[in-house]
């Protein structure tokens, strides 16, 4: 046995052991998209806005479209196009908007506002919304369930015409495998645990080898 062979394997064993030990703890979510702090920049115009009914879309409950208010007055929106949500079907979307000047919603595949009542296109492909904007100074958020690798579209619109100009915000889209906020699917968790057990066995085996 070469003198350096044990040291060569230690980094691999430490990684596997850490994975096994941390397997039962809560880790960070799968980040699908994070805008960072950005300034509102209009990419289109919608007519009216979704009514804020105070009900946030949550996993396991299909929220009916809450209707439109303020139409047909035009409001600017900025569109965020998430082409692939990955293999996590449980999606959580958060908006940190300190001035509470903005509102968001989720759509499947496309967002196409039109100047036609009663919904002005805002109900087409609708998935959900947070029900309110920056409640009690905390970021607004909502949850939806989509087919893995879906095309998600998120328009962020002004509450009042012209009210979004110069406003800073951050949009965060996270993915989970189930409603328990799992970051890895069950088979992967079992694989990590098995790798940790194997590494522990290897570590003990190396520890019993006499030093040269």
Features of this protein?
disordered C terminus, five-stranded antiparallel β-sheet, 19% helix, 11 strands, 212 residues, 2 domains, six-stranded antiparallel β-sheet, Jelly Rolls, disordered N terminus, alpha+beta
Your description of this structure?
It is a single chain. The protein has 212 residues and is α+β, with helices and mostly antiparallel strands. The protein has two domains: 8-27 and 185-207; 30-176, Jelly Rolls (Sandwich). It has two helices and eleven strands, in the order H-E-E-E-E-E-E-E-E-E-E-E-H. Helix 1 packs antiparallel against helix 2. The N and C termini lie close together (8 Å).
In short:
With 212 residues, the protein is α+β, with helices and mostly antiparallel strands. The chain is built from two helices and eleven strands. It is globular.
Question: What is the topology?
Answer:
Elements: H1 5-22, E1 30-34, E2 38-39, E3 44-50, E4 68-82, E5 90-96, E6 102-104, E7 106-108, E8 126-128, E9 140-145, E10 152-158, E11 168-176, H2 186-207
Antiparallel strand pairs: 1-11, 2-11, 3-4, 4-10, 5-9, 5-11, 6-10, 7-8, 7-10
Helix pairs in contact: 1-2
Estimate nothing, just give the exact number of structural domains.
Answer: 2
Query: Proportion of β residues?
Result: 25-35%
* Gross morphology: globular
The average pLDDT value, as a whole number, equals 81
Order of helices and strands: HEEEEEEEEEEEH
Classify the secondary structure makeup into a structural class: alpha+beta
CATH C-level name of the largest domain: Mainly Beta
Number of helices: 2
Rounded radius of gyration (Å): 24 Å
Indicate the CATH architecture of the largest domain. Sandwich
CATH topology of the largest domain: Jelly Rolls
Which spans of ≥5 residues are poorly predicted at pLDDT below 50? 1-27, 188-212
């Amino acid at each position: 046995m070469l003198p350096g062979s044990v040291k060569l394997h230690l980094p691999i064993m430490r990684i596997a052991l850490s994975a096994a030990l941390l397997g039962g703890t809560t880790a960070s979510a799968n980040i699908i998209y994070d805008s960072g702090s950005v300034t509102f920049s209009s990419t289109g115009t919608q007519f009216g806005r979704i009514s804020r009914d105070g009900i946030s879309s949550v996993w396991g409950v299909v929220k009916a479209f809450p209707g439109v208010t303020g139409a047909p007055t035009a409001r600017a929106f900025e569109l965020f196009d998430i082409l692939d949500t990955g293999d996590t079907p449980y999606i959580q979307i958060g908006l940190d908007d300190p001035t509470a000047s903005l509102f968001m919603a989720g759509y499947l595949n496309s967002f196409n506002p039109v100047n036609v009542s009663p919904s002005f296109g805002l109900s087409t492909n609708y998935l959900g919304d947070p029900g309110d904007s920056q409640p009690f100074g905390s970021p607004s958020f909502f949850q939806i369930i989509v087919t893995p690798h879906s095309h998600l579209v998120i328009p962020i619109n002004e509450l009042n015409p012209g009210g979004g100009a110069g406003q800073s915000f951050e949009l965060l889209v996270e993915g989970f495998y189930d409603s328990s906020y799992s970051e890895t699917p069950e088979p992967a968790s079992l694989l990590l645990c098995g790798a940790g057990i194997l590494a522990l066995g290897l570590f003990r085996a190396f520890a019993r080898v006499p030093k040269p």
